[in-house]
Known about the structure:
Strand content: under 5%
Number of strands: 2
Number of helices: 13
Shape: globular
Structural class: mainly alpha
Amino acid sequence: MVENDITVWAVIMAVIGGAIRVGTPFIFVSLGECLTEKSGRINLGLEGNLVMGAMVGYAVAYLSGSPWLGVFAAAASGCALGVLHALLCQHKSVNDIAVGIALMLFASGLAFFYGKPFIQPSAPRLPSFGLGNWSESPIVRAALDINALFFIGVLLAPLLSWFLLRTRWGNAVRVVGESGDAALAMGISINRVRLLSTMVGGGLAGVGGCYLSLYYPGSWSEGLSSGQGLMAVALVIFARWNPMYCLYASLLFGSAAALGPALQSVGINWGYYLLNAAPYFLTLIIMIITSDRRGTLSGMPGEFAK
C-alpha cells in the first residue's frame, strides 16, 4: 500500500514538473499568437519564429557566454520575422495563411542552414530556481526546479489581459480585430496596429524557441520544435483568444505530454507511444466538444467571421 502511494505521488510530481517544463514554450508562443489574432491576423509562421529563436538564442548565448543575451537575440529575430509577415500581409491580394506557411519554411530553412556550426558546441543554460530543495526526494526537487522564463510567462498572461482590456492600445488592437471598418471610422491605422501586434507576437514566439535550446531540452538541433509553433495556434482557438486561458491550456498540454514519461519513470511502459500523442488527442477532443454548432466560437475576433 505504501509502495503504491509512493508510485502515485511520483507520477503526480513528474506530471507537474513536465507541465511546467513542456508548457513554458507554449505559453510564450500562444500568447504571441493570441495578441496577433486579436488584431485580426493569423500567423502560421510562428513555427518558423520558434525554430529561428531557438537557433539564434543558442548561437548568441554560445558566442557571448550569456544566456540572457541569447533570449534578447531570439526575441529580436522573432520580431524581425513578425514585421516581415506584417508587411507582406498589408497587401489586400495576399493571404495571411499562405504567407505564414511560406515564412515558416523560409525561417526554418534559414535556421537549419546557419545553425549547423552550433549543433555540437555547448551554450550556457538559462538559470532555474530550485523550489524543491526543502525535500529530500529527488523527484520533488526535479519537478520543482523551475526555469526563470516560466515565471515571466505566468506574469505575462495577466499583463496581456490587462493590456487588451484596460489600455488605449489594447482597445485599438481589439477594435481592429473586431471590425476594420469601425477602426477606420475611429481613425485607427489598421496596418500599424497589426504590424506592431504581429511583431510583438513573433518576438514572444522567438523567446519560446530559445527556451527549448537554452533550457529544456537544452541543445540546438534541427528537430527541436516538433511542431510546437503550429500547435500553439490550435491552443489559442481552444483558449478562446483569452490570454489567461492560453496559460492554462499550455500547462494542460504540458501535463498531457509529460504523462507518458512520468509513467515510464515508475516502470509502466504500456502504451508509451500512444500516451506521447495524448496532448494532440486531448486538444482535438476538447476543441470538438467545445465547438459552437452555429459555426462560430466565443471570443473569436470579428474579422475572422467574415
